[in-house]
Structure prediction request, 931 residues.
Amino acid sequence: MQMLPFQENAVLGTNGLVETFKKLWQTGDHNLDITFKSPTGSGKTFMVSNFVRELQNDPAFNDDVAFVWITFSDDLAMQSRDKFYDYFFPNIGRSLLTIADFSEGVLHKDDILFLNWQKLVAKDAKKRLLRRPDEVELQKEQGFYFEDVAENTKKEGREIVMIIDESHKNVTASAYRDVITPLNPRIILNVSATPEKIPTISDVQNLRAGYVEVKRSDVVAAGLIKEQIISQTEEDLKTIEGEDLDFALLRLAKEKRESLAEQWTRLGQNINPLVLIQLPNDDSKLKDQGVETKEELVTRFLTENCDVPTNKIAKWFDKKTEHLEHITDSDNPVDFMLFKYAAGTGWDCPRAHVIVMFREIESPTFKTQTLGRILRNPVPKVDLTAFPELREGFLYTNYRKNEIFDIPDTVENKPKTEVTNLASHLLGGFATKETTHNVIQELKTSMLDELVANGSDKPVSDIAPKIEAALQEAVKQVAPELSSDPVNSVSDVHPELNLFGETDSQTTKNQKTEQIVETATRNVKAILTEHFGESVANKATEIVAEATRDFAETLVQKQPSSFIVDPLLKSDFISRADYGDIGKASSFQSSFVKSMNNYFGITENAYNNPFAQEGVLEKFGIDMSQTLSTEVLANATFAGTNDLGKNVEHEMSDNEVEKNFMNSCYNILDEQTEPDAKYGNIARSWGPFKEALRQWFERYSMTNIDNVGRYKIFLKDLFKNSASVFRKAITQALKEYRPIRDAFVAERRKQEMQEALPFKVKTSYAYSSDFVDYRPSAKSMLQPFKLKAEYPGRDNEIAFIEFLENLPTVEWWFKQNDDGKDFYALKYFNTTENRERLFYPDWIVKFLDGRIGIFDTKSGFTAANPEGRAEALSKKLRDLNDEAVKRDGREKFVGGLCVRENKLWYCNSAENYRYKDENGNLAEGWILMHG
Prediction:
């Protein structure tokens, strides 16, 4: 495969990659950057592959070098390797390696290792299996880590050249620290169409860096990419006046696609142009709001209005894909593809010729990089001189000019949270106890008569230990890695992986599940037969089988579940009325309608009476015309330099009107500043508010107008901001409701008595990206353990973790968050705020002797003034132990506030809390902690 002239110049020219590389190499320095800027569609991978091949075949460059080619996904790593193979087959002449080749433990001369950067820097430890743990005991006995490969390669005196594909994405300071530092590469080639950092002329001239750029005009002249992408024109928008904007944009895109298809046919090319339709990312919320989503709207318009068969509409979403097979083929029959995030980096579909981009309501940002998906030319060597439209891409959008930014695409539908799981051996222990409890309870409920008639003198609960042992034995036989015995459990440290770095396949999991069900059922039935006879055991088969299936699926399939730590440990709650939301919807709606009527002078005579409503709102300056225009981009062109065109006024689409109305209802509540008008928990409050507003429109103020017309009138006034009449009326209505809401809260506090539920630990917890893995934390209930990266008191809590890790009496510990129903809470009276609040102790600790600890670590001011938390925790511990004595005959709960003095930990659970005495020493009540 021959390089085009501009590609050959970029690789072999006087100031090309090879010569730039050699000049920097001769300096002998390390970590020198070469920035290679080349437009999307120019063949960056092809040029870099040729650069590597030229170096390896150059007799004047015979240094001992290995290459590490970094991408940002497994797919891209394999794609780059496969392309390299295809470019030069059969004359590869070198090893093209992936993570599957780590077993060699070293890179040899001319080796090229293709690697997913995320496997090395991901915050989730389970995704970072290539990295060597700091703790020796956590390292696997066989095989090699990334650090091993780097160290062994350097020990052999071999230099490393690093190639970072799409270097403008995700190359953070931590990524440099974790990847580049261990490799200590001689040269780093940063490849990007939009590099974030371009070296200075001084750095290039003084050989501190290198820079190679491919001009866009050269790529266009070679026929690889389109000359430009143009948006809808002002003339286009004039032709669709009076038409719903969403539908009009789709129709224009469809007509353009048909025109392009006809031109390709006239040219004798079998190419079916593809229309990409990018949906807004905030669209999914509309389902709960009763508004048609853009996906539903687009699909309905194409299938019903345009008669497009569903098999010609592809969908590429995070959790749903349809008709994507061979979609990049030039003659693929799919005409339209719907997606939300930008199609992934490395996804090439040259037949994509038109794009429709619908704006987001909450944070509208037009990302120009997304246009790169329609930039490529499907037939580079065909003369398109007579068909200028085939040399262009076409954009139809409801974005505005001022919303256009050069922001990189989101490559993948990445979750904003990461999940950490209950340690496998603890999961086994919790699941075993719960399954045993369920079996016993179901036997008592469903088969009491048979048990009494056939049983021994002992109660059925006496066989619980044997059932637990039977379940544990079944797991040890089938899947020892899931055993509740921490000695046998290995999955938390380094699970067995297949060639692609994956754990057990679904088929293997299904097989293990069935084997555990079969073995456990047989084991438990044997115990029932021994104690109650074969007849009872046979009748109990269904009960046992159902319980053991839940047990097996929880362990093997990782089905979400939760487990009671101790039935006595119940989490307190505060009534919903205390959360500051609007409260009872019917009361609010009645008050709101009354207040709005009073503000506008509307009487009951106006109820469903359009004649009585006529002229009422106009008196207050409300524009009652049912129109609402918005600005839309027109006449924009995107090429080497972008001309962002102009904004043109156009009537807002019905769907956009509904979305704006829903969003405005939320924002109105959120923007209130006066205390009596401000309500908390907007997520709960905005629904009743929206419905009250609708009722007022429908019954008293705009009866004879449809919903879209009402929303347009409302939004048009709202967009006046401080001059809005509706804003003032709504604020007044919210303030007038406050006494009603306060009375309702007071009454509800008296009436609502709800039995607290036992605190449960879940099989998995989601944490935001500001939480990072922390070790050592072998005794943490959750693996990997995640701790917030930065917050006051972090060092104090790390010291407590070290204390717990070194206590031989500790079985496990659980670090709580500061709020949420997933964590243990107790009620206390906050002495600073003078009101009842919930308190989430920092730590739940399980000791080997069965005791449960509830601890809250403090230091400095928080220790001196815990605001009532210390007394509340002390009372809770006393109450729990009273119950434990009744049930077990002994106290079971320990804990209190903990402080660190002179590197020793002290705990205080005294009824009357005091931090320090008048001499500055710990006051009476503090006890040295030693397990």
Summary: Residues 506-532 form the longest helix (27 residues).
